[in-house]
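User: Hi! I'm working on a homework problem where we have to compare a predicted structure to a textbook description. Could you give me the structure for the chain below?
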Amino acid sequence: MKIAVSVDTPEPGARVSFSFGRTSYFAICSTEKDEILFIKNPFSNVFGGAGIQAAQLLISHNIDLVVTGKIGKNAMRFLSFAGIRVVSRVEATVIECSEYFNQLETFENSDNYEKLYNTLHTKY
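Assistant: Happy to help. Predicted structure tokens:
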């Protein structure tokens, strides 16, 4: 499983970025390899459509779950069509998200998704 976390700095201790499409980086956490890679979001400063383009970037990286602060409806729709789940309004670090995600036995189980959502979800 791969989880993408929107962050403003490429550090494991970075907090989840408020914005999905305008975030500077995505932390890509893999449970298979137990690693965190950071990719720059080349669409953070585009005039329009940043969220959809960022969604396409994550789809190309075979992401299973996106963790972010705020996400627009078009990007959300795009990710949903690709079968990628999204947990928004999260206030946590990359490490916290990665560790919690690694603890879930089977992400496909809807109870585990709800548990993840309830654990990482906060209101801005």
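For your comparison, note the following. The first helix runs from residue 50 to 60. The first strand starts at residue 2 and ends at 7. Good luck with the assignment!
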